[in-house]
Amino acid sequence: MATTITNSHSGKHRSDPEIEKYRLELNWTKILDKLKAAKVSEYVKFLDGEAQLEYYLQQYPLTDSRHIEQSRNDLIRIENLLKSGGSTRSFEGQCLLAKLYYAQARYDECLTNVNLAINSIPNDINEQPNRSSLLLAEIYALNGLLLEKKNEDLHEIIKSFDDSCKLSQTYYGAVEKTKNLSNDNLDIENSLIELAYQRLPLLHASNNNIKTAIEIFRSYIQNVHIKSLETMRQTLIKQYAELLLKCVCKGNYIPITISDEKNNKVNRRTSQSLFIPRDVDEEILLLLLLGQTSTLNEAVLDWQPEHEGQRERSHQAAYNILALLSIFLSRKQAFHIIADSCEQALRFSFEHFQTWFNYGLSLISSG
């Protein structure tokens, strides 16, 4: 029996509740399967275009410039689907077209749709969970990226990324708390949201606002109750450690206070013995050890050819953390810890010369 998706007398589209549920869960493959049996309408075309675009961008992130030429060819049909069905949901259609245009490096058209979307935000945007709120978070991230390309006002860029982070965090948190929704797809990387999280503290730091950058990074690291943030955890830990290494010394270090702990109490893992760094060295070491543990736990050990890409990415993530850890511990002459870390990394990086070379240097230095 075909799925029915029809227009109500009020002009709004009444879709299958199951499809709307899948949209909230970002489960695009289920939507594509269900639409195969749906009666053709403008809204079905829109849903088909949305699901195909989002599924495509999961495989080829729009922030990766290597995919621009491929996207210009692959997304022609999807663009036509969205244009033929996008009028049924003006705001969402504009958001999706903006993402499509950015993936194809059509930045002027992207900016036009970003502005149209921002000027037509629906009234129910604050109802949670709400698919439109995540799209708006992505639009704010796109706006920040486009403003950066044009060297616009830094405060406007920061505001765009800040709005993106707040909206996405609210969306993901709401979906995870809703019992009848699956959150299996929430940890799939969203390149726009991830970039907004990364750029926000770094822009504050580039504006000599180190204190705000540190506060933002700390809130990210401590916000462990949101599953989607776990996919960014390694990158954020690495960036925060780099910021502390480059820009912070004992003289300008901002210690973690008791009030910080109380404010973040609801977002943190509970523990009877919670370690709180007392100075910048302790915080850097804690970050790098957390990063190392994370990379080791998520290391790809399968040597089948189809896992080569994943294995290489896991090696690169581990090496990035190991390099920072080696720089930091070398200053403290803790070469035996570097040797232990290199030895652990060799479990999945033994084919890489640099890991062996660093391991040898650390053994020589530790005597």
Automatic annotation (TrEMBL):
<dbReference type="Pfam" id="PF19440">
    <property type="entry name" value="TTC7_N"/>
</dbReference>
<dbReference type="GO" id="GO:0046854">
    <property type="term" value="P:phosphatidylinositol phosphate biosynthetic process"/>
</dbReference>
<dbReference type="GO" id="GO:0072659">
    <property type="term" value="P:protein localization to plasma membrane"/>
</dbReference>
<dbReference type="InterPro" id="IPR051722">
    <property type="entry name" value="Endocytosis_PI4K-reg_protein"/>
</dbReference>
<feature type="domain" description="Tetratricopeptide repeat protein 7 N-terminal">
    <location>
        <begin position="12"/>
        <end position="340"/>
    </location>
</feature>
<protein>
    <recommendedName>
        <fullName>Tetratricopeptide repeat protein 7 N-terminal domain-containing protein</fullName>
    </recommendedName>
</protein>
<dbReference type="InterPro" id="IPR045819">
    <property type="entry name" value="TTC7_N"/>
</dbReference>
<dbReference type="GO" id="GO:0005886">
    <property type="term" value="C:plasma membrane"/>
</dbReference>
